[in-house]
Amino acid sequence: xxxxxxxxxxxxxxxxxxxxxxxxxxxxxxxxxxxxxxxxxxxxxxxxxxxxxxxxxxxxxxxxxxxxxxxxxxxxxxxxxxxxxxxxxxxxxxxxxxxxxxxxxxxxxxxxxxxxxxxxxxxxxxxxxxxxxxxxxxxxxxxxxxxxxxxxxxxxxxxxxxxxxxxxxxxxxxxxxxxxxxxxxxxxxxxxxxxxxxxxxxxxxxxxxxxxxxxxxxxxxxxxxxxxxxxxxxxx
Length: 236
Prior knowledge:
By secondary structure, this protein is mostly helical. It is 74% helix and 0% strand. Pfam families: AzlC.
């Protein structure tokens, strides 16, 4: 009889398997911090924003809107729009959280970013197929721990030393983050038919980005992907 790995071993496995993504995450955290520092944000303000929000896309939008006095309503609205994808991500996660107490489920959702969601969901699906239950909480905690600490730490570091770095985005590090998403998509790939909603969402978001000011490409791409997935589901 084979014994199951201990929670500590699963926690460390989560750290190990998510560590390659830090290559893409770290420079983006620095870029965010540097841009925030150049906008007048202190390292503490950056630490608090990234620590309480932990959603990179909306944080870049917030930094670009960072002026004094703060347009609080505008920042809150843009953040809500960009983070609306978390509603869908949380819904996909929900079947794997039913066995958790409310406090733990809320903690899982708080630390849910694109990377931790993709790795946690893939792990949960593997365990479900093997008859081992749902979410592997120690593994997920390991993934979230290293991603969270790296993100908020290097964002605050970038804000503190921002003026010394200059225009970090011009160094080409921006390609690292899309590369991380491509790796995540590769792990979730189930064939072209299943990817059709992704393609439609991408095309609609790109067209909206090129033709409409603001962050409307986010809800437009999300809605298009949802409607496409619903349409193909109805046909089957």
